[in-house]
Every structure is written in C-alpha cells, then in structure tokens.
Amino acid sequence: MSDMMKAVALTGLRKAEIVLRPIPSPGPGEALIHVQHIGICGSDLHYYIDGGIGDKKVPYPMVLGHESAGTVVEAGAGVPRDLIGKKVCVEPQVTCGHCRWCREGRYNLCPDVRFLGSIPNDGSMSEYLAFPADRLVELPSSMTTLEGAMVEPMSVGFHAALRSDAVVPGRKALIIGAGCIGLCTLLALRKMGLTEIHQTEPLELRRNKAQELGAIVHDPRKESNEDLMRASGGEGFDLVIECAGETDTPSQAVELCRRGGSVTLVSMPAQTSLPFPTLQVVRKELDVHGLYRYRNQYAAVTEMIADGLPVREIVSHTYPLEQAPEAFAFNAEHKDECVKIILEV
Ligand SMILES: [Zn+2]
Ligand SMILES: [Zn+2]
Fold it and tell me: What is the residue range of 111's domain?
C-alpha cells in the first residue's frame, strides 16, 4: 500500500475537502484499522455549517468523524496479533483512567477525554485510523461495518434511555425530534419494553421513519401542546426526552411532562442558555437529566444490533468517501430529504 491516505477535512465554512494524510502507524497498545464505514453526525454538520459549537471554533484544516467501523490490518506492540483481520467498531473516546470520574465508571465526564473529531482533535473520516485497541469492539459475523458505524449514535440513544429511571414497561414516553438520535432513542425505549412512545417531528420523512419504527407520531406544526397533552391521556407523559435542539423544545419537554415525571435533555442547543420553566420543574417535582455522549454502551449495543436491532432503517443515504464534499452539501441543504448519511470507503 502507498504511504498516503485520503481523509475528509474541513478547510473553511461549508468547505469539506478530500485531503491526503500519511497513513498512521500503530503505536504501543494501538491497532491500525482500515475504516470501511463512517457516519456523518449532527456535530460534524454543526462544524461544517457554523465553524464550531458554542465557543469552540474549528482549527482549519481539521479531519472530521467519530462514527466508524472497519477491519484491523496491523497490531502495535502489546496488541494480540489475532486481532488482525477482525471487523470492529471504534468507541471514539480515550480517557485518562485515573480521575474521579474515570474511577467511578463515568468516564465520559473525564476532563481529559480525547474524543475523535471533536475540536481540536482530528477524527476518523479517513481510510485508516490508528487507535487504542482497548477501545475496539469486535463485530459478530452477522453484522456489517455499516451497522458498526451506527453503534455510536445508538449508544447515545441507550444512554439517553438509561439516564432516567422512568423507563418501565407500561409508562408513556414522548420523544421530541426524530433525527438520527431521536430515532436511536426510540429503538432503545422499545428495546427496554416501552410500548406507548409518542414522537414529534416537523419533517415528513423523519416522521414516517419514526412511525415505521413503532412510534405514535405528531406534527408539531399542526398539533399544539394541548393536543399533545390530550394524546398523553390528559396528565402529561411519564417520560419526555428532548432530541430536537430548538429554542423552545426544552420548555416544551417540561410542559408536556406529568407531575412527578422525568425529563432528559439530549440535544446540544446552539445557545449556551435558553429560557427554562423553572417554576414548573419545582411545582411538578420533575427529575431533569442532562446527558453527555455515553459510557459503557459499546459492547452491549453491538450485541443488540447483531441480534436484530434495526439501525439500518435509520440510514437514508450512503456516499463513497471521495464524494464527502457532495454528501455534506446535501446534508446541509436538504435536511428534509435525509435522516442519516454514511460514507463508504
Ligand atoms: Zn455521533
Ligand atoms: Zn479521567
């Protein structure tokens, strides 16, 4: 193989380009992965459109991507040779291992976390990736690397479901938003035994997808909060999970939650603070949960996907890696026509 590889880098606002980078060699404890599928995440798209998230700015050029799966082609010192040839997905976070949060098992909160494709770190949207072997999960033979790339967003969905103790069969849930993460959250709640799951989404394609995957869907442009309250049976939902990231959806989550219920805020709003109905949170004695990425999910999620969790249904488009510039442009300009794009190497 030649010693250069293609990678997708942001080089300016709304500019994703194919660049050449040296193929990395795996250091001690690392494996070299030939990446085969990589998802375009909402965060990649934020960087593309806005040049950053909040006060974090993209250091151009920066390689994007963190939702990847592929085949191990080389093992660094101390890594078992029998890993070579195995299909794997990549948990994209490396943590310090000794801070209070790492020791408590909440390693996603490690202040020294290095996350692929998150400012200022380069990501995995490239032909090869050298990464710590202990962050890889082997894919069972029944699973494709395309499904392997979906382990990342699906881990967010399960982490969102598990943040609340209100996920008990028989309870009524509402998910606000049916983008990729909203749909992954739907699959997680269903897998955990909830049967009545309502979901709001203004875009028809996404709403139809949610319905196919088992949600009772609502168009927030046509149905008011009063309508949704009635749909809950009158008292509000036991559990509301916010995955839309609009200015008014966190307050909507609080309004539509029943007394003593639970609200989980998943999406990252563009603004650092939003109006929030604090009085209702107090009077209704709500449990409000935040959420940051995921932890301890990769192995279990991989197993559930291999067992038939239909993540493939969420993928609306695939593009070859070379066409990443077109894929980003399409994703940014035709949000109503796509749910999830995955690049193929
Ligand atoms: Zn992601
Ligand atoms: Zn740590």
Answer: 4-150+315-344
| Ligand 1 center from residue 42 Cα (angstroms) | 7
The pLDDT value recorded for residue 331 is 97
Please state the pTM of the whole predicted model: 0.96
Let me know whether 129 and 197 are in one domain. Answer: no
CATH of residue 36's domain is 3.90.180.10
Query: Do 10 and 140 belong together in one domain?
Result: yes
Position 271 confidence tier, pLDDT thresholds 50, 70, 90: confident
Looking at the fold, whether 223 and 140 belong to one and the same domain comes out as: no
Q: How close is the Cα of 41 to the center of ligand 1, in Å? A: 4
| Domain membership flag for residue 310 | no
- From the CA of 105, which ligand is nearest? 2
Q: Which residues surround ligand 2, an ion (CB under 5 A)?
A: 95-96, 99, 102, 110
Q: How far is the CA of 173 from the centre of ligand 2 (A)?
A: 33
**Ligand 2 center to 315 CA (angstroms):** 33
Number of structural domains the chain divides into: 2
Counting other chains too, the contacts that 318-322 makes at CB distance below 8 Å and 24 or more residues apart are: 318/146, 318/342, 318/343, 318/344, 319/343, 319/344, 320/344, 320/345, 321/6, 321/8, 321/18, 321/38, 321/125, 321/127, 321/345, 322/6, 322/18
Distance of CA 39 to the CA centre of its chain: 9
What pLDDT, in 10s, does the model give residues 193-203?
999 999 999 99
C-alpha 218/C-alpha 113 separation (Å) is 38
Instruction: Give domain status of residue 308, yes or no.
Output: no
99, pLDDT greater than 60: yes
CATH number reported for the structural domain that contains residue 248 in this entry: 3.40.50.720
